[in-house]
Amino acid sequence: MNNRLTDLSDIVSRFGASFTSSSATLPSRAELEQCLKHFGKVLGKHPLLEDLRAAISEERLVLSSHHAESMSELLDIVRNELATNAAKRREFDYEPNHIPVKERLSNFFFAFALLGYGGLGLKIDDLYIPGKRSSGVHLHGAPVWVMFAAICCAAIVLLATIVDHYDRRDNERHYQATAAWFRNAGWGLFAGAFVLDLYLKFSR
What we know:
Layout: H1 3-17, H2 29-43, H3 47-56, H4 65-84, H5 86-93, H6 101-124, E1 127-129, E2 137-139, H7 142-166, H8 172-202
Antiparallel strand pairs: 1-2
Helix pairs in contact: 1-4, 2-3, 2-5, 3-4, 4-5, 6-7, 7-8
């Protein structure tokens, strides 16, 4: 049994025990909602599941041993389903990526700041690239377009992280592959812009 199913089984056991033992405590609303959320991944719209959701969503939480029996029955159905259905087991085990709000906001603003800066440089045909140990480089003409393409790649990498957070499907590997491709393309275009700039300067 995986860790998640073990945790849910513990909640269901405590739920049932709360009606038979004076020393047992009823699980919190959040714990019960967690059970129903994960049961729903496996069962979809099951009648018992819908009844429990309705009961737990009430403003005043009033539950009975009947609800505990329903929860236990759902757990048995889920356990059997996971034992025989590999696809359901993968979906049950899957936990979507969570990107902190601060990182999402930072990526969002930095991506659009880059695009705004690159777009301005494109418009005036003068894109300044600061240097660590030099005064930097001003790009003009074709190198500006190449550098803007590199900036677009960087923005896509930043925004892909945000989209990944909101995509609840099990496809992080696609976002990782996309980010890696645009990251490599961006660095290639970044270097290419300087190479093209040097070529144009020395070929005159």
